[in-house]
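Researcher: For the annotation table, I need structure tokens for DNA primase. Please keep the output clean. Sequence:
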Amino acid sequence: MARIDINVPYAEKDEAKILGAKWDAANKTWYVPDGVSVDHFLKWLSDYNVIAPYWYIAQTYDYCWKCGCGTVMTSVLLPEGHQTLEQDDDGLIYWKKHEIPAFIFYIYDIPVHILKNFERITHYLSKDYSKTVDNKYWM
């Protein structure tokens, strides 16, 4: 699994370091390095519920459901082996590994290092408001 950025408050930096987190001075963020389980870092992962070693940008040309104009449709496809943060009936939170690829939707937050990759594609996603879900997400 690729490195995973975590949001560690300054007051908790020593705890994160003891658990195996590393400091990225260039990006000024703590991260869980490749090969280290994220299980001990859940409290600092609260904003993220999907992790993957890589991802694909899928695009197709279609017509807008609202205005009928032709447009490029863009989505994110996660490979087999991606993980999602789940909660069981007892309230236990755990990472579930998926054996098949999956598209993800209603993306509310994208880490900066991943967002930079979207700048390289023709149809750049933007965070916009949806009346359907009454919230902003990347579309």
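Researcher: And a one-line annotation?
Model: The longest strand covers residues 70-78.
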